[in-house]
Amino acid sequence: MPRSRALPPAMLLAALAAAPAHAALPSVTVQDAHVVEGDAGTSSLRFEVVAIGTPRRLALDYSLSDLTASAASGDYASAGGVVSLAPEPARLIEQWGERNFTIPTGIAQAPNGDLLAVDGPSSRLNRFSSAGVLLQATKVESPEGVAVNSASEVFVLSFHGRVRVFNSTGKLLRSFGDTTQVGSDIAVDAAGSVYVSEVVSNRIQKYSSAGSGLAKLDLDGNVLKWTVTYSGTTGPVTAGHFHGPAPAGANAGVVVPFSGSMASPIVGQATLTPTQLDQLKQGLWYVNLHTAAHPGGELRGQVK
Q1: pTM attached to this predicted model
Q2: Measured CA distances, 180 to 32, 46, 221, 294, 297 (Å)
Q3: Looking at domain 98-207, what is its CATH homologous superfamily?
Q4: What is the pLDDT of residue 40?
Q5: Which one-letter DSSP state was computed for residue 279?
Q6: Using CB atoms within 10 A of its CB, is residue 81 exposed (0-12), middle (13-18) or buried (19+)?
């Protein structure tokens, strides 16, 4: 019959599913703990550790509370023990992008795993694969921060407080924000609301994501007629204008103001000068709608 004997601490190497390094300790289940031993030789304690997460190999120190196993009914009974798991220390895995940046000022991850990074001095929005391959570079004026929503829209905050929204191919979709402020960082929550930190009034601004609009233009000779419809703004539109000359993403002064009611739809017309007509045809004008919450403009769209 096997004899009861002291059991030395055992170092066990196991493939475990452990939580990421930044997460809390995982819950661990020890299954089928038992001792295999004969009349002579070294005894060993065998058990299976079950956890949830990404598989990796960990060295586990196992110790018995009293370093003994007990005999009962001619066989061994399990003894108490402790298995301690600690998160893996953070370590540098890889690095890249040294030739793509002057001063990177913001980074975010898209739903497909791509990485978006903005570089202030070079005025660029860079899209990388998760392996660090440069996929796309988009010119953006003075970027400070970047965020991505669940629909893969990319929000870039400029130093001048303007937020520009791009699709996954780098096309400018819309812009908004308070250009009287200095932007420093940006975030988007699960509901799509946009948060901007600024350093003039030292505050956080929250923007609704629901605003949208459409401008229909009719050019008859040098007479421009327009109908602008919109919805979802944070409040009534207080003013509206055509601005120019400026390419998409840049700012310019008012060239033609809207008059009359600012309720949707805004309807009006104006006679253009030859210079204004040429700028309009080159796509150098944009429509900007202002609200009390966003006096610098809440909705903006480039005329094409």
Answers
A1: 0.50
A2: 67, 68, 37, 10, 10
A3: TolB, C-terminal domain (2.120.10.30)
A4: 47
A5: H
A6: middle
